[in-house]
Amino acid sequence: MKRPVVILVEPQLAENIGMVARAMANFGLSELRLVAPRNGWPKKGAHSAASGAAHLLEDARLFATAREAIADLNYVFATTARERGQMMRVLAPDQAMQEAQGRLAEGQGIGILFGRERTGLENDEVSLADAIITFPVDPKFSSLNLAQAVLLVAYEWYKRATGGALPFAGERRSPPAERDKVLSFFDYIEAELEAVNFYPKDKEPIMKRNMRDIFHRLEMTEQDVRTLRGAIRAIAEARRLRKP
Fold first, then answer.
1. Which of 61, 90, 167, 174 has CB 3.0 to 4.6 Å from 221, enough for a Cys bridge?
2. What mean pLDDT do residues 135-158 have?
3. 66: Cβ contacts below 8 Å, ≥ 6 apart
């Protein structure tokens, strides 16, 4: 499966590059290109920040300019948090990655430009792209960390590419309790509560119904019934042992 290429333009901090690699690996992106990273490459600290995704750093390709980094691609997105006054299509990450998926399926090479940590992409670099990706953030604080921006786009890509399936589900591991076991549980707990005079005589029927409704809403499994019954039995037996 072809994937979008992540291109960092003049990244400054080694830790940010490492965290970008980690975000890419989380969501199935594998090609990283670096444009003139400040103080050269490799950078001390990048591998530790990558936290297991160091292979992306080792395979990263270096370029002198953004123009050179995108030369072999067919379609490029530029990310920015602010309006640039350029007449380009502006897409949210999910919209952009939907389009990227279609273009990749046609065999096109897709790149995503990310700018410097402090200043982002320059206008001339944005103009190298076909469309802009921006993020629906709080306008009072719209600045995103470089790795955060990559993570948001990579997440949308992976969700589109895989159908958004979660890695695990919170499925029941015990079947729903059979009705006779539920009713037997009600009989047991009501008998124990009667033994300690829990019910006021004038409210006993309605309190029993209310309590049954509580347990019905839980849609108890067989394991639930066994556990609750065992817990109540332990409390009741401990109470009886404490009696003089």
1. 174
2. 90
3. 7, 9, 35, 113, 121, 125, 128
Mean pLDDT of the chain: 90
Q: How far apart are CA 102 and CA 107, in angstroms?
A: 9
| CA pair distance 25, 57, nearest whole angstrom | 11
- Provide the 3-class DSSP secondary structure of residue 107: coil
d(CA 185, CA 107): 62
- CA 119 to centroid of chain Cα atoms: 27
Q: Which long-range contacts (CB under 8 A, 24 or more apart) does 189-194 make?
A: 189/228, 189/229, 189/232, 192/232, 192/236
- Taking the C-alpha atoms of residue 75 and residue 110, their distance in angstroms, rounded to an integer, is 5
Each residue's pLDDT tens digit, 84-108: 777 889 999 999 999 999 999 999 9
Average pLDDT over residues 156-178: 84
Task: Say whether 78 sits in a helix, a strand or coil.
Answer: strand
- Its pTM stands at 0.75
User: Apex CA 138: angle with CA 133 and CA 142, to 5°?
Assistant: 60
pLDDT at 7 over 90: yes
Helix, coil or strand: residue 40: coil
Asked if residue 37 lies in contact with residue 10, where contact means CB atoms within 8 angstroms, the answer is yes
**Helices 179-195 and 204-217: angle between axes, nearest 10 degrees:** 140
Residue 8 pairs in a beta bridge with 34, 114
1, two tokens: 């499966």
| Integer Cα distance of 186 and 180 in angstroms | 10
Helix (H) / strand (E) element for 211: namely helix 204-217
DSSP letter assigned to residue 129: S
